[in-house]
Amino acid sequence: MTDRALSVVRAGALTTVQDRGRPGHAHLGVPRSGALDGPAAALANRLVGNGPDAAVLETTLDGCSLRPRSDVTVAVTGAPCRVTVDGRPAAWGAPVRVRAGGVLDVGPAVLGVRAYVAVSGGVTVEPVLGSRSTDLLSGLGPAPLTDGAVLPLGAPTGVHARVDVAPQAGPPAELVLRVALGPRDDWFTAGAVRRFVSGVFQVSPASNRIGVRTTGPVLERARGEELPSEGMVWGAVQVPPAGMPVIFLADHPTTGGYPVIGVVHAADLPAAGQARPGTPVRFVGVRGRGGF
Q1: Which of 84, 132, 185, 213 might form a disulfide with 181, Cβ 3.0–4.6 angstroms?
Q2: CA dihedral of residues 174, 175, 177, 183 (deg, nearest 10)
Q3: What range(s) does the Carboxyltransferase domain occupy (predicted)?
Q4: Residues of the chain whose pLDDT is less than 50?
C-alpha cells in the first residue's frame, strides 16, 4: 500500500469525506451532497495547496484524530476548535505540517457544528458519479469514517498558502435566512405565511445533513388535501403536517410530498450547516417569486 494515506485514530461522532458534491443527478434520485459549509471546505483546500475539487473531511461536533503515513500539510477550518499535533497546540485556520506517524487531533467544536480537514493531495477514495462525497441519504460514496480506517491520499499538486491565519466567518449566533416564497405558499393560511417571515424559530437537535429541522410557531395549512410528490431543491423549506419548517441541505431527498413554503438563498445555506441546536432562526422574505 502507498505511504500516501491517512489512518483514522479516532473517527468522531460523524466524520465523512466531502467535496463539491454531485449536482445534476436529481433525475436519478441522487442528491447533490458535498460539504455543507462549502466556503470553509474551499478555504481549507486553498490553505494546503489543493485544487477546488479535492476531497476533504467534514467532522461533526467532536472532531477526529488522524495519523498520516507520510509527511503532509493539513488545515482545519469551519467550526472553531482546538487543534494539536502529537499533543502540542497547532494553528486552526492555517497550514500545519504533520510528519509521518504524527497524530493530528481535531478537537470538539467550540462554536458551530462542522470542521473541515484538508490534507495536501486530497482524499482520493473512489469517486461515484463524479464525486467522492458521502451521501447519507442514498448511501453513495464512502461510508462515514470508523476507527482504524485507512484513507488514500493523492500527490500534492500545489504549494500551501503562506499565511499565519486565514480570516473566515464565524458560526451564527442567530441564523438569518433570505427566502423567496413559493412555490406552495398558497397551501398555508395568510397568518401562517406572516408568522413564517416574522416569527422566530429554533434549530432542532434532530437536524442533520439532510436538513435543518426547526421548532417554533406552527404554520397552519389552508388546504388539507394531499400534495403529489414533486421535485425538491437545495434550500427548499418543506413543512410537514406538524407545521414546523425543515430547511433542506445537501443530502436532501430529490422529491417530496409536503408543501414547500419558500426557498432559501443559496449563499445563506453554509451558515445553516453550522447552526447548533437551539440557534434562533429568522426567515426574511424576498419580494417576488424565484429571484434574489
Answers
A1: 185
A2: -120
A3: 27-290
A4: 1, 289-292
